[in-house]
């Protein structure tokens, strides 16, 4: 499946029914999700691999990984409503994805049983709560051998410093992230920001 075909399929998925600002529930745009996943697939990190999507929301990255031939896909999110949509999205494509309601900060989850080969993650950017992305980075590096994450433009130096001794940044790809009006405090129908897709390799 080429990049454009993947993007077109991901465009069909449902988004959040009632997004929550506190959780920074912005829908990952299909072009960004497709680019991350296609690039990861070209690097051998998707097909035949166990892929975990942390903070999966409505499952766009998880579903895309399954479409690209991942051997197993697990998506986790703290919001049961988002997980319900994610399950419907998987059913739409007739793909097998295991979706779990879980908080990445909860030590009571059986994380050892979720150790995988590849983690994909679009963590909160920290607009509502400073450093909200850190628990996602920590858990991603605990679970996966390689991590593909979406971060605000200019985040690479922070990510490098925060993960020093645990991982190395192997690649940074900048791309446009069209953010549509989602919450009451938004004034424009769409704002295009720039994000960085960062590939981390666990040491």
UniProtKB/TrEMBL annotation:
<keyword id="KW-0808">Transferase</keyword>
<keyword id="KW-0489">Methyltransferase</keyword>
<protein>
    <submittedName>
        <fullName>Methyltransferase</fullName>
    </submittedName>
</protein>
<dbReference type="GO" id="GO:0008168">
    <property type="term" value="F:methyltransferase activity"/>
</dbReference>
<dbReference type="InterPro" id="IPR051720">
    <property type="entry name" value="rRNA_MeTrfase/Polyamine_Synth"/>
</dbReference>
<dbReference type="GO" id="GO:0032259">
    <property type="term" value="P:methylation"/>
</dbReference>
<dbReference type="InterPro" id="IPR029063">
    <property type="entry name" value="SAM-dependent_MTases_sf"/>
</dbReference>
<dbReference type="Pfam" id="PF06325">
    <property type="entry name" value="PrmA"/>
</dbReference>
